[in-house]
Amino acid sequence: MPIGNFNVIVEREDCSASLWRNRAYDRLKLHLAKEFCELPYMSYPAEAPNYIPKDQFIRYLDNYIERFNIRPKYHTEVKSCTYDQDKQCWFTLAHDMATSVDVRYTSRFLVVASGENSAENIPTIHGLNGFAGETIHSSRYKSGTAYSRKKVLVVGCGNSGMEIAYDLASHGANTTIVVRSPVHVVTKEIIRCGMTLVQYMPMNTVDDLLVRMSNSVFGDLSRHGIVRPEIGPLLLKAKTGRSAVIDVGTIGLIKKGTIKVVGNISTIKGNIVEFDGRKASTFDAIVFATGYKSTANTWLKNGESMLNGDGLPKKEFPNHWKGANGLYCAGLAKRGLAGIAMDSRNIANDILSSLH
Ligand SMILES: NC(=O)C1=CN([C@@H]2O[C@H](COP(=O)(O)OP(=O)(O)OC[C@H]3O[C@@H](n4cnc5c(N)ncnc54)[C@H](OP(=O)(O)O)[C@@H]3O)[C@@H](O)[C@H]2O)C=CC1
Ligand SMILES: O=C(O)C(=O)Cc1c[nH]c2ccccc12
């Protein structure tokens, strides 16, 4: 039956908790099909330190759904989720983008797993509206090919900014990156080691080790404008949600002078960007690798028991993952991969116990 812009509504009762728990995966695969294959770490030259062949990554995803018997619902966008007090269930309106069909799900449980990294966050910067060049958020960045020989400023030195800066420089862009705060640069082996050890040892002991190992790999980067935070990488993640950055080759290019590091932007005038404590430069393009916002509050209609207006949990960790009426959230506590794993276990156990 036609409703608004949509063509057909299909009634379905088979929505399981796992389907919603895996909404993030669903989105990932959708992106993969359309865009991911062109993202920086897929397009690195094969000799780059962390190069992952595209087919290997896709194989990993396929193995994952097979191993856990997940049936992802691809190309589907959730429009709204509302709790129906009378029927005591969650009512979800979704849109199948492949067929332009609307699908209605009813479920006893609803798990919000749409992530902290949902909508682009672009900061307010004086003069940005009048910037004469191109501006793009990291979420829409695909490859450095189009930026060859251009002067590009990357704003933000999280994992996105550092990867994109490497990709731009590898494609011959004259690349500068804004590093405004202290950051922990690590290797993927070091962070993996830390995530394993912290399951058995105190966090500060592990953090000490991670900082020592990282310093021995990268040396003191302060003369290049990169300073370590006072607290270790794992505690920083737990306290502030800020991730360590896995180097993909960017640090080598910074040391060589191929990628330049600058401090915070103070103002933009035409195509001239001025920085704190440093003279201004002109740029052809600015890539905003300035992070994301949750958007769960836009489609979750009566989730006040769990989320605030920013689409993040109201309750403090570790009690953030459960709302009222079978509502849960996984991966919204800014606790990284370990936090997501913890949420998933709590939610699965809670659902299991309420089914008995
Ligand atoms: N290969 C991987 O594993 C990858 C993982 N990720 C993950 O995805 C998530 C999102 O990452 P990402 O997109 O990098 O976003 P992040 O939120 O991690 O980083 C945003 C960066 O932008 C900076 N920033 C924000 N506003 C400004 C501003 N006005 N001026 C200057 N700098 C600013 C922040 O600095 P400040 O700290 O000062 O606020 C921070 O360095 C993270 O968890 C990350 O670890 C992302 C890419 C690849
Ligand atoms: O779990 C997190 O988010 C962490 O901060 C540790 C971590 C796991 N995988 C990563 C990839 C890039 C940077 C940090 C991590």
From TrEMBL:
Keywords: FAD, Flavoprotein, Monooxygenase, Oxidoreductase. It holds the Pfam family FMO-like. SUPFAM superfamilies: FAD/NAD(P)-binding domain. InterPro entries: Auxin_biosynth/cation_transpt, FAD/NAD-bd_sf, Flavin_mOase-like. It catalyses: indole-3-pyruvate + NADPH + O2 + H(+) = (indol-3-yl)acetate + CO2 + NADP(+) + H2O. It comes from Paspalum vaginatum (seashore paspalum). The keyword Flavoprotein applies. This is Flavin-containing monooxygenase. Belongs to the FMO family. Coiled coil: none annotated. Its cofactor is FAD. GO terms for molecular function: flavin adenine dinucleotide binding; indole-3-pyruvate monooxygenase activity; N,N-dimethylaniline monooxygenase activity; NADP binding. It comes from the Eukaryota. Its EC number is 1.-.-.-.
